[in-house]
Amino acid sequence: MKNKFIISTLIAAFTVVLFSCEDDFLEKTPSEFFTQAQISEAAESDPGVIASTLSGIYSLMVQIETGGTTGDDDFGQKGNDIFGDMLCGDMALSVSTFGWYRASITEFQGTQDFTFGDNRQVWRYYYRVVRSANAAIAALGGNDAVPESDSGKHLLGQAKAIRAHSYFYLTQYFANNYNPSAEILPLYDDIDDLNGPKVATSEIYALMESDLRSAITLLDGFNRSAKNEINKPVAQGLLAYVLGSRRDSWAEVATLTKDVIDNGGFPLMTATEIVGGFDDVATPGWMWGIDLTLEIGLDLVSWWGQMDSFSFSYAWAGDFKAIDQALYDQIPENDARKEQFRDAAHPGRPLLPLNKFYHEGRVIGGQRNIETDYIYMRVAEMYLLHAEASARNGAEGDARTALKQLLDLRIPDSSYVDGLSGQALIDEIYLQTRIELWGEGKSYLAMKRNEATITRGSNHLSNVGVPIDHDDERLTFEIPELEIQNNPFIDSQNE
């Protein structure tokens, strides 16, 4: 009984340390954390400690104030997805009544001033996930361990994959471009790491690739209990994104994505499904997402609260997030995806995703407590990445085939793709990526991968018609002020 009490107390305290919204691990002293030895000892006595830690990480992805603010834009991964969609210009803040996102994000004030809270919000969220993953990895024996049990392998694979996921987004949001020699971020791969200097991009990519290759092996044969867990196809998709952002491993990106397409068991969403609300994690084409229930307790402060006019939300009350007018104009009239942004019953809400993201009740402002689900990855991304990688690797036939498989479910005739080659084919794949994945947090990644120049359409509130290169300082966050103040090894902004 005494041992059980000690272990339970350690678990409770450990959870508070990892997931408290009030404290930032990068602002603490080492004595306030459990060591690898302490965590490993607890896990040895109660293996549920590790599973609980992984569950805590997945919960962290949807938890409000994970970035250390009380802002209504601070709600985990999907909050950062909105940042990216707005920075790249594909999502327009077309009406701003309450001011969320306007100055800091759409006017680029936050990305040019390290004192703005959005910089800390993004930084803190991902490093909290990193530290939590490090705790799980430590409890399973460390970075080089190979657990004997299948359950241990599957837990370790998930922990490594989610750590790589966080570092990937950090490299995208805090570096202007991929430069292997540029020092951009601290690297923490052990629970005892608390503060450290910025290291070269190549070091961070090496860790991400190592983590994901290991995860793919460890997760082989893993039958997850829910889609919020990372399985092998998701880990393959994450590795494809990492390698694609490096722009020098297109053959492997093509191989990874083809394996997910052929063997993952995820069909493309149909023309009916893509106007069905994007509200159900059970949708067969969703590879990774989370089933949100009333018990989770999300309401206005959530992705749905910022995006969905049919929820009690800012999108209902006067902060409209619309598709960029210029992007919308490039969608053919006979494309099923055009209907995602057209709703004759609500003419005062032009170009909002009223038929893409919505609560099924379809009552303006109706859903008060969030039950509609979050999406993180779907198989359409793999088709588009496969097409992009194949085109860049010279396998244009494979690229056209993958692209047409998607387009055949969106438009009556995709034969025009057969006449595309070279840069024209790559440009078409990029355009279709922006259209297909609008509002899902992937347009920013595609902009960086394609080294695109963005030009905002007429329905933005600022910088309309101004060309902005993908590596412009305004499109990436600054290392936050509090990190510089509290980390003695960092004394300057992004280089």
TrEMBL record:
Start and end residues of each SusD-like N-terminal domain: 116-238
InterPro entries: SusD-like_N, SusD_RagB_dom, TPR-like_helical_dom_sf
Domain RagB/SusD: from-to ranges: 353-452
Pfam families: SusD-like_3, SusD_RagB
Record key words, sorted: Cell outer membrane, Membrane, Signal
Principal cellular location given in the protein's record: membrane
Compartments, as annotated in UniProt: Cell outer membrane
Domain of life: Bacteria
Keyword flag ATP-binding: no
Family: Belongs to the SusD family.
The protein's name in its UniProt record: RagB/SusD family nutrient uptake outer membrane protein
Organism per entry: Flavivirga spongiicola
